[in-house]
Amino acid sequence: MWRTAVSFLKDSTLVTDETLAQIERLAELAPLHNPVNALGIHVFRQLLPDAPSVAVFDTAFHQTLDEPAYIYPLPWRYYAELGIRRYGFHGTSHKYVSGVLAEKLGVPLSTLRVICCHLGNGSSVCAIKNGHSVNTSMGFTPQSGVMMGTRSGDIDPSILPWIAQRESKTPQQLNQLLNNESGLLGVSGVSSDYRDVEQAADTGNRQAKLALTLFAERIRATIGSYIMQMGGLDALVFTGGIGENSACARSAVCHNLQFLGLAVDEEKNQRNATFIQTENALVKVAVINTNEELMIAQDVMRIALPATEGLCVPA
Q: Which Pfam families does UniProt cross-reference here (predicted)?
C-alpha cells in the first residue's frame, strides 16, 4: 500500500471498513496505487468474506522518524490540518535489505548505522540507525528526493509557478512534467532506463553523461547528510534494479569517499559480489537483492495468523 495517514496506522494491519475507507480517501494522493488496492480488497472480501485481509503499508517503516526529519518548514496548519509531512516510501525494501545485511554481517541490526540506496526507476535513500529509519529521501510523495528515471526529485519549488505562468500549464500538467518527463529521461533525452542512458554515455552522448553524473551526485549528497545525522556509517547498501545490477552506478556513488573509510574494490563490484568494499575499508559496502514480496508475506503471516484461529477453510 502506497500511503497511510500517520495518525491512523503505523504498521501493517487487518483490513476493516475503517481501514478501507482511509485507503480510498487517500486515493487522490496515490492515483496509481490506492484505487487498485482498494478494488482488490473489495473483490477479496466478496469472494472470501471470512478470510482476513491484511494491508501492508510501504510508509510504515518510516514512522520512526523524529519531527525534525518529517516536518516541512511550512505554516503549521498544513501539517496539523492536512497531514502534509514526510512519509517516505520503499519502506518494505529498506526494512528487508537492512535485516539481510545484519544477518550477513553476523551482528544485530540494532548495533548498526546503515544507509540503504534503493535505486531503480523510482529511487530512495534511507538512513537506518539501530534498526530504525531515521531519515529518508522521499517525502510527502514519491516524487521528492533524489533524481529518478522520470522523476526530478527535489528542485527549487519556485520553478513551478514560473513555468506555469510562462507556459500556461495546469497543476496536472506540472505533475506530469515532474513525474513522467524529468529525471534520467528529461536530462539525457534518451530514456528513463539507466542501462540505455549508460550505453548512450559510453558512445559519447554528452547529455547522457550529465544525467548519470547528476543521478550519482544527488545520491552522494543525501548520503553525506545522513552520515552527519547518524554520526558515522557502518554499512552502505545498494538494492533495486539499478543498485543490484549496475556496477557503474555503484562506482559513481562511491567515488572518492576514501576519506570516510569507504572504498570499492572494482573487481568485486564488476562481478556483483555481496560485499564490494576494499579489504581495509572501514565501511562495509553491500549489494543485496531486495525481496519486498517476502517481507509482505511475512507481515501478512504475522498479522493474519492470530485472526485465523478457529477458521474452517474448505478443502
A: Acetate_kinase
